[in-house]
Amino acid sequence: MISGRDEDALRTLAEELSSQGAQVVYVKADVSKEEDVNRLAQKAIDAFGGFDTWINNAAAAVYGHVTDIPIEVARKLFDINYRGVVYGSLAAVRHFKEKDSPGALINVGSVAGNRAFPLQGTYSSSKFAAHSFTDALRMEVEKDQLPVVVPQIHPARVDTPYTDHAASYIDKAPTHDAMMSPPESVAEAILYAAEKPQRDIYVGGQAKMLSLMGTLMPRVTERYMEHSVYPTNYDAYREAESPDMSTLQGKGEELRERGTNKGWTRKGSWMVKMKKHPLLTTCAIAFGVGFLLLWIGMAIFEDPNKKT
User: Fold this and answer.
1) Which helix (H) or strand (E) holds 224?
2) CB 3.0-4.6 Å disulfide test: which of 66, 82, 84, 195 passes with 121?
């Protein structure tokens, strides 16, 4: 089951997946509307007899200082990024509870929901809200012993049309002008979370690093981001389009996997690989620490009279 606001794009994707042997049903829906989300859940139940995995992935973005973002734009952003997660989560938990069989509710968050970013303060706020809602819901379903796991995915920069479709209240076009993860890494994390119960999966070392820095060294992190975020989040040589042409306004949903970002894309995410193979990761870290200690020991106890 796939969903979105652009029916032509949905139809094209459904045909592509069907040609590869998948059984696909698409539903045109707007996650900012509770009735659309409930209709989507009911369509999945009617078509397949139910579902065992629900993924809240829809989001819109806006760039600009929080003092420059119109209140009505911020409200619309929250309708999609926060309320869309709430509507989808409630529909999924309700179904899993009625079905009384295990299910996975996967919410795709963001590093910006763990550590606020300048120029994306409004987006960060919506992702912080979705993050706290997910954490609260996880505790409540565990307390009630419901058959639901609630993982959250935390991507950093990903090479998608996210920046191309963002509403911009700065005079330059948003872009990722730094290291990015491929969208396949996020898909890999989602698939693994659906197969194996998880709490959090970080996509990209930046996601984990900035989240930890923000917790352990908040003031240092703020000063670092004040200097690093601005030059890596917009294209100084390209003017921004009108905010009316953004995904926030229902525009720009053409079927495209990659964006027109200026940065470079890695082949994958080591953070996801480490999460999938914890034993190998532990062994590799232990080997590395052991080798380092051996090297230090040899340096300390080396014969000072030895000729070189």
Assistant:
1) helix 218-232
2) 66
